[in-house]
Amino acid sequence: TTKFTSALDIPVEFVEKNVKLRGKLHRVTEKGLEVEHIPISIPFVTSIQRKWQAKGLLLVRLAGVELAPRGMAWLQQELKPKQMIWFQLLGREDLALECLVLVNKGRFLSVCLNEEILRQGLGRTARIEGLHHDSRLYWKLHKRLLRAELRALKKNKGIWKEESYSERIRGHIRDSKFVQTLKQFVSWLRSS
């Protein structure tokens, strides 16, 4: 029932047990998602506690994901302010939480944003900070993330999209020394 306003407020046991917390998204930043923790509510107790609860946002990062520039734009488009999300604690690094982030899509369906970004080709799989690399959970999650990345690679999505043959030829011609020299000569003629 306690409202966490800083990553340091969250007990170590919560992080070690990979507890899921609920929160309201405020904004997507370069550092991660800024989320207001929404504690479990007990009707009478919650109304009293609200008066003494501090204000503050938790910085939640997508564990195991290295975002591409287009990934940030996709997150900002996909997630709306005040949207409810669930985040499963995997680790804590300074003032940031490494988490699996779940978003409800419909009544009974939820999507793991970590996997969805990789499935769309908008990021790469990275080491999951905070989890011991020899734990079963680490390898289970890492395998899920790698599968999502492999799916994007097979479908040529996002950062894995390959150029067509004609695009590659145009690129080689455009980048050739002869064409570069010709462009410089033409611009010199125009300026003279």
Automatic annotation (TrEMBL):
It is found in: Membrane. Coiled coil: none annotated. Keywords: Acetylation, Membrane, Transmembrane, Transmembrane helix. It is a single-pass membrane protein. It comes from Chunga burmeisteri. This is CC033 protein. Transmembrane segments: none annotated. The lineage of its organism: Eukaryota, Metazoa, Chordata, Craniata, Vertebrata. One of its GO terms (cellular component) is membrane. Its main location: membrane.
